[in-house]
Amino acid sequence: MADKRNILVSVITQVVVSMALLAVAVGIYVVLLKTKPRPQASDEPPAMRRVEVMHVIEVPVRRQWTGFGTAAAMDSADVPVQVSAIVVEVPRHIVAGAEIKDGDVLAVFDKSDFVQQVNILSQRIAEIDAQHDQLRVEEASLGQRAGLAGKETELAERELERVLDAFERKGANQREIDRAEEALTVKQRLETIAKEERDKIAPRRAQLAAKRLGLDAQLALANKDVERCTVRSPLGGVIQAVDVEVGERLAVGERVARVVSLQRIEVALRLPGGARAAIAVGDEVILTSRSATTQSWPGQVARIGPQDDETTRTMAVYVEVEQDPHDSAAGGLAPGLFVQGTVVSSEVELRSVVPRRSLLGDRLLLIQDNVVRSYPVQVVFHVQDEFPQIGVAAEQWAVLAEPLPAGALVVVNAARSLPEGLEVEAIPLNGPPRRARVRSGEPDVMGSGTPDTRSGPGVGR
Predict the structure, then answer these.
(1) From 3.20.20.70, 2.40.50.100, 3.90.1640.10, 2.40.50.180, which CATH number describes the 79-108+231-260 domain?
(2) Quick check: 282 and 300 in contact, CB under 8 A?
(3) 201-228 vs 112-168: helix axis angle to the nearest 10?
(4) Beta-carbon neighbour count of residue 101 at 10 Å?
(5) Among 26, 88, 316, 366, whose CB has the most other CB atoms within 10 angstroms?
């Protein structure tokens, strides 16, 4: 019983002490709360939010159209083999990625069979030439024989005339006349045979000449085949692929190597069909690639496809780029690269433009009498350009269909939370627009006080 009583006393003591400590802590908190200093209220009005704004200026703008396409080399060649033979040599420097010149040897084929064919044809031509020489000898001999036969015929004719004259004078008989006529007939027959043999020389000569021409053609082809055993590059550039090895036998038409020139590159850009009326041959184009690092290449429209694609509603614009393959600092446009192209129209329009970041959907935030107002606008198109005459740093711009109210201040960054009706302090980034005269012969444009000495807006990067 004594132990239970001691335990109960101990518990009661602990509870009383805890409650006493808690009461002391509450008392201290109340005292500190009652004695803390009170800040004095300020009679000044709250500061207004500061907002960056800009004056809208009309500037000359060229419309831009953006499309995509794949670069392709305008000068390339799949070099084929033109004879069926065995590869006996591939130069050590002929490997993929190597740079070569026009006429460099790509591969050498076994030409022994074609050399033998040349020798055979050469011997046949020599035989034809020998037959020509023989004809010349025969022609001279037959000409002499025909001449002698003609003289013998003349003698036989005169002899017959003498016999006939003697017969009329009763100095010859019929038998002598018959012998003279028979002799004349024999001489005439011999003369005819000699002339016939002589006249056969011309057709035989023509036949030999035709054979010679045929053999000459065959010899030319055989010599050409000997030359074709050495395959050379038809253009200078870079080897993309080598498809032959030493000891391999290739058939006519199989590819030896592919050579690509990097000097002229063409890109077939696919643009919206509605751009056809605003794009012309010669318009500036900027091609960009953002695969690893952003690169750009200037070009121009070389050709325009005549027909729109019915499925994608796009048109084809062919852009040519001239570049120096050895200029490593410029970064060459490689065939097969997928690029974005921006075509800049040559037509210039005077339009109001605002930074693209100032748009909030299809509305702008204007500051009128230091109060935020929402204003609906219609955007005609967007451009990527620089307008130093505006005095606001931006690359992406929205071109407005209609000008804004006079003296309007546009909030540059519409991403800030600015409810309509909020009173703010406007911080202009540029001066109000005023009439500025440019070079003689050009129309006046609205500027910020600095004349625009450019011939037109720059091309977007």
Answers:
(1) 2.40.50.100
(2) yes
(3) 170
(4) 9
(5) 366
